[in-house]
Amino acid sequence: MGLAIDNSKVELARRVLVVDSNPNLRHLYVQALERAGYEVHAATTIQEARRLLGDHEFNVFLSDTHFNNRDLGVGLLLEQLTLFAAKNIKTIVMSSHIQYELICQKMGVDVFLVKPIAIDRLVTLVNRLAH
User: Fold this and answer.
1) Where would I find the H helices in 13-118?
2) Rounded to the nearest 5 degrees, what angle is found at the Cα of 24, between the Cα atoms of 39 and 110?
3) Full-model pTM
């Protein structure tokens, strides 16, 4: 008789949602995280991110604060904070706008990163949060 393995927990521990409207950065983040062994879903818009959050389980949420020059990422965080807390989804927020750091800290974001971000540092942070 073999041991039963719960694959749902294994898969969840390696699943990341990347939300960034910049196609070059989004592609770079997705590639780096996939190389590190993560299953990565990517969203270009807030609507797409909402759909993915409803359709899949994630353990790390990685998002920019701005989409098309508007601070929609902060709004998405505010509306999803209860879900993130209930499901223990760790959050990483990135921005070239340093003024959002304090706002994100007050909201309970796990990590705030100022762009530009070294990819190896990003992968290291995701690894720490995912385990």
Assistant:
1) 23-35, 46-55, 72-86, 100-107
2) 55
3) 0.86
